[in-house]
Predict the structure.
Amino acid sequence: MSDSAHRWVIDSIEESMASVEVDGKSMIIVPQSLLPSGAKQGHVLSVKRDVSADGKRSALTIEIDEAATKRALAESAAQVKKGVKGKNDPGGDITL
Amino acid sequence: MSATIRRSAICVASLLTLAACGSSDAASRASSVKSAATKATTPPSSELVVRVLDVGQGDATLIENGGSRVLIDGGPEMSRFGFLLDSLGLNDSTFDVVILTHPHADHLIGLRELFMSHRHITVRFFFENKDPFATANLKHLRDSIIARVGRGQLIYRDTDDPCANGTPICTITMKGGAKLHIMRPLPTSDPASTNPNNRSAVVKLIGPDSASFTMWLAGDAEQEAINWFLGPAHYDVNPGMHVDVLKADHHGSCNGVTNAYVNAIDPQLLVASVGAVNSYGHMHTQAKALYRAHHVPWYRTDQNGTVEFRSPGTAAGKFTVTVKRGTRNMKGPSDKHSTQAECNPIP
């Protein structure tokens, strides 16, 4: 029985450890070995937890969600276009 | 000039040990150090104060000069950075320039605290590389920035074009005369497939009197980016890389340093922003061995707490280093030997 689904985003991978953003909130560190072998920084992962009926066994299924990754990157690129150089920025060096 | 001779120009004061050089002014300096540790005050016009803040496993560096305030990165936690804003008395204040070196969580998340409405903090200029990245934390931060851009309250610049006029280096002059050069990071045609560490913005800080204090900060730049600084970018020529203090790239990782990099920077001192308990083995033993071989001593935030540099910003002025606890060259509980190929050996 699948009892929960989560969205993970890989923030970084280093020294076989991955820093992961969980459901847009908390950060966790997980061993890279738990992730799909093709998982890279910036990937969105679909994570489902299945628990046996007797509650004694659980299994996590972690999949690279290519569609969600592309969508998130496109949304991110679109977001920064809103904040392009404003009319109030003359450009050049800055004297505070 | 040998490292031993050059190091004689540095005074070090610890809040616990008061191990200071030039003992005549040690007592007065100790009292000012205690004050500085609890509340940030507006420094005299030319004084330059740089604090590498103890934010755990992440980066946050606060620079103040003549009433101007610059922040480079915000560390990994909103609560921790919020605590620092409170303890440094920085609510209801202005951050003239904020730089996010790259969008990894350990540099980014704390910056969200700047935009919490109850803090009443003004941010005038925000620099980041604007690369697309999928995390919600980055989206929320950018939402806050863009909202203020829309209200005409903030200028938002891309570190790939830091002066918004096509030049690769932008100079910011602080009110006390200190200057920051913000340099374009390693270029890429495909940010989504480029290691975000190598897209770190680079900053060179120069005190009001350039002889008194200089510092190099390059976020989490790894060897590919470092080789680009020294190669195609020619940052060793313009603006020049030789400085007094190097903030260790990538928290003291062995992939954030090369022998050519240390030779070009030739620092008197290194400061690593690193968490005592981290999963990456920072500071790596290979990196420490390299710094030791180059006669570069280090402080580190996990063992020394916030590391503070003060320069009077005057001709022939010497800078002082203040740490909350401990000594130079300390070990950390997470320090490990890395098995990364680029570290065995470090080129």
